[in-house]
Specification:
Low-confidence stretches: none
Subcellular location: Cytoplasm
Largest sheet: 8 strands, mixed
Number of helices: 3
Function: Required for maturation of urease via the functional incorporation of the urease nickel metallocenter.
Radius of gyration: 19 Å
Helix content: 10-25%
Subunit structure: UreD, UreF and UreG form a complex that acts as a GTP-hydrolysis-dependent molecular chaperone, activating the urease apoprotein by helping to assemble the nickel containing metallocenter of UreC. The UreE protein probably delivers the nickel.
Structural class: mainly beta
InterPro entries: UreD (IPR002669)
Order of helices and strands: HEEEEEEEEEEEEEEEEHEEH
Main location: cytoplasm
Length: 312
């Protein structure tokens, strides 16, 4: 049995006690570790003949990818990888792990095919580990579509990045309040997202945690959490191609022209770049703001605006 066949490979270490409190046994054949409950993607990309190509691919249903495509006219060698999932979304007992290794000099954009739905959990919770590595001089963008937590859902996700000092990394995330058209707004049980970035020696550069538990001390409606807003998003930009102050200035200028969104921009520790936090009342305005920020900072750092991702 290989390491990837071990159930522990997909399960986050040191889960918070607030998450473990939901870890009751699931009855029936679809408990944790059952077929179709452990999703694995292990990808490696590297420069080949002027373009970034997929050189290693291991996938286990329900996670999978097709061959990367090259769709950016400004950076024709950049590989765009669309993560896909069989089924409609996370259900209780799901344990997913995604590893993407970007070799030195590679250029990779990773996104999802569509928004991620999280369904109601009666007995357990769902988890997702995303491990990203950007080698020397590599470019890595990780910009998944929004997460939509349904009533009674429970999701813990951890995004861990290892980045070389001269790598350029852009991370983004968006959380919607739920199925608003069905009268659901922050009626999930738990949404917990951790982001951590380390250097190649393992030293922590920065970490960020978003923990939301409706009806608890970290209720989304609390003044110190989301207040009167429903949609929250983040964007993290790490690069040595220019100064953190210039990255902050460009991001603030991009967001100044977006209405109905509350945005804050700050420098990351150790001069590694900048971070953005956005709050809004509706998805369209927040997604417009994230795209505007990505477009402007991408043009600054990569010399190419945000391309059409062809998602329809």
């Amino acid at each position: 049995m290989t390491e990837r066949d071990d159930r522990a490979w997909c399960i986050p270490a040191a889960l918070p006690r607030e998450v473990l409190a939901y870890g009751t046994e699931i009855g029936g054949a679809l408990g944790v570790g059952a077929a179709g409950k452990l999703g694995v993607l292990d990808l490696a990309l590297a420069p080949r003949a002027g373009s970034t190509r997929l050189i290693r691919q291991y996938q286990r249903s329900p996670l999978y990818v097709h061959r990367p495509i090259h769709l950016d006219p400004g950076r024709p060698g950049m590989a765009f990888v669309f993560l896909q999932q069989q089924g409609d979304g996370f259900v209780q007992g799901d344990r997913y792990r995604v590893d993407v290794d970007c070799a030195p000099g590679s250029a990779v954009h990773v996104t999802t095919q569509a928004a991620t739905k999280v369904f109601k959990a009666r007995d357990d919770f769902a988890t997702q580990l995303v491990n990203l590595r950007a080698g020397a001089g590599a470019i890595l963008e990780y910009l998944p579509d929004p997460v939509i937590p349904f009533r009674g859902s429970r999701l813990y996700q951890r995004t861990s990045v290892t980045a070389a000092e001269d790598a350029t990394v852009i991370l983004g995330d968006i959380l919607l309040p739920g199925r608003v058209a069905h009268g659901e707004a922050h009626v999930y049980d738990l949404f917990w997202a951790e982001t951590e970035v380390r250097d190649p020696d393992g030293a922590l550069m920065f970490a960020d945690t978003l923990r939301l538990r409706p009806g608890k001390v970290d209720d989304p409606g609390s003044p110190g959490v989301l207040g009167g807003y429903d949609v929250v998003a983040g964007l993290y930009v790490m690069s040595s191609r220019t100064s953190p102050a210039e990255i902050v200035s460009v991001l603030r200028a991009a967001l100044a022209g977006v209405s109905d969104v509350l945005a804050g921009v700050t420098e990351l520790p150790a001069g590694r770049g900048a971070a953005v936090r956005l709050l809004g009342h509706r998805s369209p305005e927040v997604r417009t703001a994230v795209h505007a920020a990505w477009d402007r900072v991408r043009t600054l750092l990569l010399g190419s605006p945000a391309p059409d991702l062809r998602k329809g």
